[in-house]
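Example 144.
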Amino acid sequence: MKILVLNGPNINFLGIREPEIYGGNTYKDLIQFVTDYAVTRGVGVEFYQSNHEGDLVDAIQKAYFDKIDGIVFNPAAYTHTSVAILDALKATSIPTVEVHISDVASREDFRQVSYIRQVAKKTIAGKGFAGYTEAIDFLIEYLK
Ligand code: CA2
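Predicted structure in complex with CA2:
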């Protein structure tokens, strides 16, 4: 089983700013944490992060051609704005779990809209990095 762990804009800034919202660990720490967990679950993981909407669309299309089984996706700010990313997920039909590090439900009004939620098999928010591993668990069960 191959899972793509996809992260959107500014996630590469983890641990550098706003630790009160996103925690003190870095994007590199996130990769290590998820990689270690994937080993224990016997699944392959690939990582990609971009600050650019079109790059994320390209990554989703590439996942289709690479026969990726599932996507763990934190679209970051594009969650709340991107029809292009929604369309890419719809077009490829790759089972996707939407993950947010922070509890978006308790934040600003503009974060209450998610274009991704309607195609996501599950949305996990407010659990920090543990949301990513919970998403892997969900995909393993879902893809059985
Ligand atoms: O809680 C999440 O994971 C978010 O997807 C993070 C996005 C935000 O736009 C979403 O509403 C919720 C922002 C990611 C920004 O990451 C930073 C990390 C460190 C410092 C500054 C930004």
